[in-house]
Model the fold of this input.
Amino acid sequence: MDYSINKIELRGRVGGTTIRKAGDTRCARVSLITDYYYKGRDGAAVVDSTWHNLLVWEGKNVPKLEDIVSGSIFHVLGRIRTDKYTSSEGEEKYSTEIIVARGAIEEDDLTPKNYL
Done:
């Protein structure tokens, strides 16, 4: 059987959250920053930060949307979705977002101690 897998796991710090009503339920658009730490050629610590756009639907596998606040640590499992659209200037553009299937707010620190 031939099949593909679209699965992603992220753990990072929330930058911002916008909650919207969609029919009978609600969703939140969340910006999440993740850091990748490594040592450069000179041995100095290097941090590569990436922002991710998340779509979180209200439900049993995610925390209350009001609890996903700026600065909190959010651990998510989900899938990647890329959309194509035409801008008001007529240009074709793409956006990528993570559709969250499960999420949890965590309490511990994100900074690896051995790189600082």
